[in-house]
Amino acid sequence: MRALVLDAGWNPRPDYDLSDDERERRLAMNSSQTWQHPELAVEERERPEPADDEVLVRVRYAGVCGSDVSMLETDGEGYMHYSAYTKLPTVTGHEFSGEVVETGRDANLFEEGDPVTAEVTDYCGRCQMCRQGFRGHCENFEQVGFTMDGAFAEFVAVPEKLVWDVSELAEQYDDEDRLFRAAATIEPSTISYHGLFTRADDIVPGDYHVYHGAGPIGLTGMNVSRAAGAGKVIAFEPSDERREIARNLGFEHVYDPIEVDPVETMADVTDGAGADVHVETSGAVAATYPVIQETLAEGANVVHISNAGSDPDLALRKYQGNSAQLYGAEGHTGQQVYPRTIRLMAAGHIDNLPIVTSTFDLEDADEAVRRAAERVDGKVLVEM
Ligand SMILES: [Zn+2]
Ligand SMILES: [Zn+2]
Question: Per the record, where are the segments of Basic and acidic residues compositional bias (predicted)?
């Protein structure tokens, strides 16, 4: 089968303290410290065999994520930007839809032909993190498209416990192609869903939500916020193209943070109240946190989702004075985040199709990642 394979040179930085696991398994916990000169190419690979607890999925669509881009981008010394987990070479791609074509000996939740998507993080269920309910932080995790072969390929094998049936999307998407396109955007939607509703505590209908950054995660998040009954959804995004996509989704409070004064704009839009929910989806934290801290509504929730390379100055007194909370949100495994996101899509409360702005064939999947690196698209999909 054809597959998009990422490889790089294992060359840990001299001052990086490698763990035993990293040394023995070449499983990078911080890829930006270990992998140099990444390369991405469409290659011929063996079709995977599903293990006993896995299902084999014929992939229909897979979305390019910011993490796929940052695994290809490098710093001045050629080290990968991506700072989380990888084991290379690997087939990348983790936001996907497809049909089950084969099931492992012990896998009985799905049947051939079922339309599905899957969670990214495989968890053991036995470690302390898993037993506390933090499966996304499993101590023995694997990740589809990062440490195990992913979905920019004709077929992907995934543990059945990560797989979710998406057939109810047919209530909204009568055309099968549209159904599979929409299903490939479930994963990015779950990132914000998890941040807003399993991490933050008391987000209620009528809250004002503001997104700092309207890239693919911000745009899909704005759809989640609207579906959840936000009073207003506000966004700051410097890219003209991305602001246009947000407006096409029906959002009217979308601003260029370079052109307007975001603090003044927030005061206008919220009539001086500030935002109840602040979502950091840009990574440009040195610019966004000063704005967030000046525009906290009383009791505001700040949900930190982006992967920033550095830390902002935190004005703790502002949080104290506004009874505000700062929630770190990472991963989105378990807690029924996927099935509830699927329900919102099936009910027509979330439609991500207008966010999809480019589609590439699998044979050009490396070009799809380079296109996403231009940071002007909503979501770039690869069609298998
Ligand atoms: Zn992703
Ligand atoms: Zn575990």
Answer: 40-49
126 Cα: distance to centroid of ligand 2 (angstroms): 5
What is the pairing mode between strands 54-63 and 90-91? unpaired
Average pLDDT, integer, range 184-189: 96
Residue 346 has pLDDT above 80, yes or no: yes
In angstroms, what is the span from residue 341 Cα to ligand 1's centroid? 15
In the chain, where are the structural domains located? 2-185+352-383, 190-328
CA of 83 to the centre of ligand 2 (A): 21
Task: Note whether 242 and 204 are within 8 A (CB).
Answer: no
- Centre of ligand 1 from the C-alpha of residue 320, in Å: 33
Residues whose CB falls within 8 Å of the CB of residue 217, separated by 6 or more in sequence, listed in order: 66, 188, 191, 192, 281, 305, 306
Does residue 333 have a pLDDT over 80? no
* Distance in Å, CA 187 to ligand 1 centroid: 7
Report residue 331's pLDDT band, with 50, 70 and 90 as the boundaries.
confident
CATH number of 2-185+352-383: 3.90.180.10
Cα 48 to ligand 1 centre (Å): 22
State the pLDDT at residue 83: 87
